[in-house]
Amino acid sequence: MPRLSEVITALDALWPAERAESWDAVGTVVGEPDQEVSRVLFAVDPVQETVDEAVGLGADLLVTHHPLYLRGTTTVAASTFKGRVVHTLIKNDIALHVAHTNADTADPGVSDALAGALDLNVVRPLVPDPSDPEGRRGLGRVCELTHPLTVRELAARAAERLPATAQGIRVAGDPEATVRTVAVSGGSGDSLFDHVRAAGVDAFLTADLRHHPVSEARAHNPLALLDAAHWATEWPWCELGAAQLDEISDRHGWDLRVHVSKTVTDPWTAHVASAPTSSAMGAPN
Amino acid sequence: MPRLSEVITALDALWPAERAESWDAVGTVVGEPDQEVSRVLFAVDPVQETVDEAVGLGADLLVTHHPLYLRGTTTVAASTFKGRVVHTLIKNDIALHVAHTNADTADPGVSDALAGALDLNVVRPLVPDPSDPEGRRGLGRVCELTHPLTVRELAARAAERLPATAQGIRVAGDPEATVRTVAVSGGSGDSLFDHVRAAGVDAFLTADLRHHPVSEARAHNPLALLDAAHWATEWPWCELGAAQLDEISDRHGWDLRVHVSKTVTDPWTAHVASAPTSSAMGAPN
Amino acid sequence: MPRLSEVITALDALWPAERAESWDAVGTVVGEPDQEVSRVLFAVDPVQETVDEAVGLGADLLVTHHPLYLRGTTTVAASTFKGRVVHTLIKNDIALHVAHTNADTADPGVSDALAGALDLNVVRPLVPDPSDPEGRRGLGRVCELTHPLTVRELAARAAERLPATAQGIRVAGDPEATVRTVAVSGGSGDSLFDHVRAAGVDAFLTADLRHHPVSEARAHNPLALLDAAHWATEWPWCELGAAQLDEISDRHGWDLRVHVSKTVTDPWTAHVASAPTSSAMGAPN
Amino acid sequence: MPRLSEVITALDALWPAERAESWDAVGTVVGEPDQEVSRVLFAVDPVQETVDEAVGLGADLLVTHHPLYLRGTTTVAASTFKGRVVHTLIKNDIALHVAHTNADTADPGVSDALAGALDLNVVRPLVPDPSDPEGRRGLGRVCELTHPLTVRELAARAAERLPATAQGIRVAGDPEATVRTVAVSGGSGDSLFDHVRAAGVDAFLTADLRHHPVSEARAHNPLALLDAAHWATEWPWCELGAAQLDEISDRHGWDLRVHVSKTVTDPWTAHVASAPTSSAMGAPN
Amino acid sequence: MPRLSEVITALDALWPAERAESWDAVGTVVGEPDQEVSRVLFAVDPVQETVDEAVGLGADLLVTHHPLYLRGTTTVAASTFKGRVVHTLIKNDIALHVAHTNADTADPGVSDALAGALDLNVVRPLVPDPSDPEGRRGLGRVCELTHPLTVRELAARAAERLPATAQGIRVAGDPEATVRTVAVSGGSGDSLFDHVRAAGVDAFLTADLRHHPVSEARAHNPLALLDAAHWATEWPWCELGAAQLDEISDRHGWDLRVHVSKTVTDPWTAHVASAPTSSAMGAPN
Amino acid sequence: MPRLSEVITALDALWPAERAESWDAVGTVVGEPDQEVSRVLFAVDPVQETVDEAVGLGADLLVTHHPLYLRGTTTVAASTFKGRVVHTLIKNDIALHVAHTNADTADPGVSDALAGALDLNVVRPLVPDPSDPEGRRGLGRVCELTHPLTVRELAARAAERLPATAQGIRVAGDPEATVRTVAVSGGSGDSLFDHVRAAGVDAFLTADLRHHPVSEARAHNPLALLDAAHWATEWPWCELGAAQLDEISDRHGWDLRVHVSKTVTDPWTAHVASAPTSSAMGAPN
Question: Which residues does the annotation say bind a divalent metal cation 2 (chains A, B, C, D, E, F)?
Fold first, then answer.
């Protein structure tokens, strides 16, 4: 059975810490280098729910995409919800390892998993990593559809193929417009509009899009926008990561049990559609 | 018929420029002080669609909540979409006046209109303006429901009473929890969580809520969150502002025709719900 | 007749926007890409006087050296004098295009025109642009006189050859010193003293020189300084620019009428010399 | 005969160091507290010329308005011109004391002396010092003329009453406009335009005015501007300061000999007017 | 037996978190609010040695003066020495609470304990806390000696009364000078020289003094400086804090066992005096 | 006899100013370029004591390692202790030249002299200067011992070989540990721990080490730390520098008398060891 330090070395080889953004907080957050690891759980969010799932599963290592302390903390007291996560992990001898922007840009990375879930053919990174001579690593992916779809059909495929969430998929632009090329980026994508426009794609699927960036993007050009739940766009990476670790485990004869969290940590729990004859002023345009 | 400078003086009395946030960009953006005004259009967004509506209506003055140039510009060339707005306004002798954070905190202001649209009884500002001795001005409103509702029922009321949008209302928290007190804030509200928690309300209705702030808010305490479309939470203020200007016009004998834009400038045009049996992993928790 | 976008493409080829300083604000400020252009006016300052001249002239495009909004604006309301300029331009279908620090460093640029007006032989840029392999572009010019002149004679030539202004030419240093080499830089030049000293010239002609920089420069070494009116040092570029556009127009068969503004927008309107026996304390040293 | 520390205490009472701007560098720059003082020289600039004058005069203390090291130095080596000033002072046992923005705002201060030289009746400070309950201290002065003058006549009075300089007086605005009220501020005044406009005066006399601030001020409103030589606007303060120290000396029985520098350290040494028929384009507007 | 939250409430009453400096990191760092507390250990440093001592002692709560994470951390992995401290604490159900600059300025606080250990009579805070109407709180203490001592005698008393360290006490200034008044400040004190000079004391005892601040302080005035080991100057506060908690425990009937760490965490382990006839150049001056 | 400018040229060749850190303040601080130099004194600190020594010696040039005004000054008034140094130097025609971080990194530099004094064999710079193709220049030195010593023995050698100071040598770590490799850096070295750890040496000798950096360094790994007096670690460079100037003088036939200051300007004047049975709590660990 491998020690934590050995498993971490393998994870670091998949997602090297030095490839994370300077503002990021990746790597091992909790855990003793010499503790033994037999069961691993992959999840998007390091929250009490996924930690409790890890405890229930008897996991020794929880690997998440989101950092626990992005902006640094001076306390892990259990009176804070993040401190309670640390206490639960240490008390149950569960290590926590984070792969965030280093996993976003990896090859394959978060947006490769997202593209795969949507049956999209990856062409190139949306924002290539200048340090990669082969131009495969980078943030987001520019993709082609095998067969053109309307925006509505692409949204329906996303709603069907991504983990179900209360939010579903929001669409901006003509639902009947044709889509042949699409850029995808897991997580918050409203800082990437310049790159998306430069890529000249028909549509852009990402998460956490807000009023002003979307309105201005639409005013710039008729690019269709699809907004899925942040968690749902990054959950596919958990399956990818688990599969990668499985393969490493087999190669090393570690006999690891690698699981993917079934807990939906997307915060939205319900959705109420606008009534078509809302008393205010009329149906959406 | 009043000159633009007289109408602006009246609008400034309702929403004094000095009460806007230091980062904001309120006041008259386009227009000649001496041009005559007979027809006014209120809208949320100063975009080509509402400007074209103003041209079609023969308006002389467009009053919007959102600024045209929040971060300052060195060009109004028509090759930029905002420049085209400026050219359309000037060529058609239409002035543009903005009331943004000075209207947010006004008494009555944007969140009063939002509370009114939802039949909520305003108790106090969520973030009182320290310069107001009477404590009525400020950002957001803390409200009470005449009769308790479940979170789902409150969401349904919002979906029904606010202008219809493709997004509808997203809910985080237990849909069946009871709501007696609710904080509301028009527009992007994810910087107000500390104030909302301090107010001790059961629910918070605002817009543009993203994954991390919502997840962390939910981890803090079981506060229910309702996310409506940014535009829909601020449209009710247009009706309020138009009514206020109507009343001023009568008082001055200006005989102004004051309209409220019917153009839905919320960018979301369609919504596709997650399939309950989405192939990924199962229904929302 | 060419469309504005075609003429702008030509102007951008002369003075590429990317060669402007990062703090600058060059390019098209007002105008519709498809509007037709037959008459163009060159001026230094985008002020009401030159805009009224453009209206009177029936110009379709005003090209100026100084930007209209160097520091960005959130309003173009006609209640502001710059807003009135924008309203006058748009109402009279006159576009505005700015070429500022990109014209300063161009080859030929503002200081070439200034050197030409003074019969000076350009040797090299005072501050070479590192991105120019041929070392011809850059700020200011180091020049040689065909025949040596005294400082007083050089000042007299400047007063005679540059457009007349109330200010005339101020001189610091020994008026009878001999000048063989001179650095010139149109506009405010008091940030260039280190470069001027390094060039080892006998004199430096520029504008907007103030007490402390001049006193310290004089204390450093006996470099003669000639201060002409800011506007007057940059007006020769208008003639150069107009000639360059004329030539382009001929080449394209555009048949453009290209004019140079006759309006003196130097703000100084009068000059009163010190009385030789001023009651205070005596004649200048 | 008083020691330096005693004379400095008296000067600090006139111009307390704590009333200088935070960016300023006032107080004693060179000198031994116990050295005896019998002869004092007042000057505007601490330059080699005024220091040599002090040596020739046998002065023990040089008091100047301008600081020697405004931005701090790490060397006083004589290879630098300011270092040579320090070496000359110390070798000749001459102390140096600076009263700059603390003298600007004093009551009486630099602008009182300037107003006095121009026969103007001081009404109030242009920028009152909030820490002065009596509202007499502050930057610049708002003045009234005993009898109205045209702008040209006021400029002629300034040229006649202020120490003669090669620059003379530059005027912006209608030379024939009538002046009843005028704001004056010794030294560089182009940061005070907002205050001057708020004061509603007919004219503003100061120094070091440059193209853009003057053009924009003139575009704002028809305020006449008079630009004298920086040194000339501050030299009257030397007479005021010398008189004040004389009076203190008498009171203490110090028998000080107090002189005012006759050295014109305004850097401009000659002026050449524009030829009325300058070959370029015509007389000034 | 009290829960941790109750003990923390008592400690917060002694050293309120809001009285810490804004850059500080005080309060509970590890621990579950509901865990029971019967045994408490006070120490200066939250390092592996004191944590091991707490484990050996069966403590439930470790209270330290120095924060564990002053600048915030994004990981508590046991591969880092601070992370190993967190893991040891949580695995052994030991809470960690920090009272740092809020204990420095408390009344009584760190410097009161230091003064007490040295038999000094506290007169007032060296840097009074403006928010304390009674003027008793603040950083450092100004003290009087009951009987004057020479600097050497005071140093000997400090060496004798403070916990023994390899460093002992360094002295700057005349060892035979007389001391009647002394300022003391536990921990690094080289930012307090201005306050110490203003207090006009004969000597200043603190820690972590470096060459340049000491040389410049000595050049300013003949103030004697005594430099003890950082840890030794703050260890007396552990005794004071333990006694205060004991008293609170008695009052609440908590029956707490409160201990003070015996582990010397001063890092210096040996000291070698300069040989009087060191081959370099001679005995100290 | 050489002029000051010639000697400075020679010193600049040894320690080029451009190789100093950007925050540093090296070069000639006082002196007239043409003054003659026959006698030179080297010292660490430009303080009154070494300046008085220079006056007593009849020196013409004082060369120090520490700058006089590191952060720039706006006054050299003799009422300040640094101003008194300037007055004494100028009155006695003594120049002052500083070689600080440019001497630290020179080859040979400050840490070479320190290593030499301790009989250590220099291997390479601790922090190589990237601009040195030969990799010999840089901050600090990594050294080897000819024969291994215990930490205590190395500390004893330092106490014996470096100029005697009241402080002596402080040691952190096991005094009996064996040392084969040691990094040395004259002056304050607590910013170099990362480099020292990366060099993998057994011990690090420097100065001005404080509690927190030393405690954390020790927690990182068992690296032994030796803290000598700041002045003592830099005094050996004076001998090195004097020898280098002697050699230059012979080469130029200048016949310079070059001295090394005997004044100990280390501020510590006495040391009192902790009593082994200090009443507080026991002997050091």
Answer: 66, 230, 234
